[in-house]
Design a protein that fits this description.
Layout: H1 14-21, H2 28-36, H3 45-56, H4 67-71, H5 78-96, H6 109-116, E1 127-133, E2 139-147, H7 157-166, E3 171-177, H8 187-203, E4 207-213, E5 218-220
Parallel strand pairs: 3-4
Antiparallel strand pairs: 1-2, 1-3, 4-5
Length: 230
């Protein structure tokens, strides 16, 4: 049986529950209901929220949402879908952000992988990022430089070093994912990394590492002795 929102007891409605008991009292369904705001003539916003959770299986898989997939759910149009995707993206950025007072020295490939692999969750294409570091190896800028096809990123070294100059970086760490989760470097990965390392030596902005990211593992050129140590 479907209930209209005004037929639901007042203190069971998401907004009222939040105001009285706090945001921690809200279920995932409640949180989505507040973001989505309204349902349809046939379904309450809570039912639409439940449909959304059911479609993606669980909360974790919401990170794999795309505009097209969300718009397939009855009751969620393009505007609502965009607002929802923005909320997910903002949450991800807040989680990943490193505040100045909490700066970490990025010298451990395993730590770098753990701190950045969320950038690649659910990605079906290759994404190429650069981490730009100061002379203490602290992060000063993170840039997404390219998005590629299912199995190839098209990256030009000049873009890597142009951003390094713009951010006054002292060194660079490169990251890209393999959607297949096979993190072994391809011939193109090796060739491109060697080219970056050589240019970095000439420019005086060393490439400290190039990490290939998988969901449960990574490959570090530095750890495999293909790049000069930190």
């Amino acid at each position: 049986m479907s209930y209209k929102m005004n037929e639901i007891p007042k203190m069971e409605r998401p907004r009222e529950k939040m105001l009285k008991y706090g945001i921690d009292s809200l279920s995932n369904q409640d949180l989505l209901s507040i973001i989505l705001k309204t349902g349809t003539k046939e379904k309450t916003v809570q039912e639409v929220s439940l449909d959304l959770l059911s479609t993606f299986g669980d909360l974790v898989h919401l990170r794999e949402m795309t505009l097209y997939k969300v718009c397939q759910i009855k009751g969620i149009g393009k505007i609502k879908a965009m607002e929802l995707l923005c909320c997910i993206e903002l949450g991800k950025r807040i989680f990943l952000e490193i505040e100045p007072k909490e700066k970490q020295r990025l010298t451990d490939p395993n730590m770098i992988w753990n701190n950045t692999r969320y950038l690649f969750y659910g990605r079906k294409q290759e994404y190429f990022y650069c981490l730009y570091l100061n002379h203490k190896h602290e992060l000063i800028e993170r840039k997404l430089l390219f998005m590629g096809t299912i199995n190839q990123s098209i990256v030009h070294p000049r873009e890597v070093f142009k951003e390094a100059y713009l951010s006054s970086a002292s060194s660079v760490i490169c990251l890209h994912n393999h959607p297949s989760n096979d993190v072994r470097p391809s011939k193109e990965d090796i060739s491109f990394t060697n080219k970056l390392v050589e240019i970095g030596k000439i420019q005086g902005i060393p490439i400290l590492d190039h990490i290939i990211v998988g969901e449960n593992s990574y490959y570090s050129f530095y750890e495999h002795h293909n790049i000069i140590s930190f």
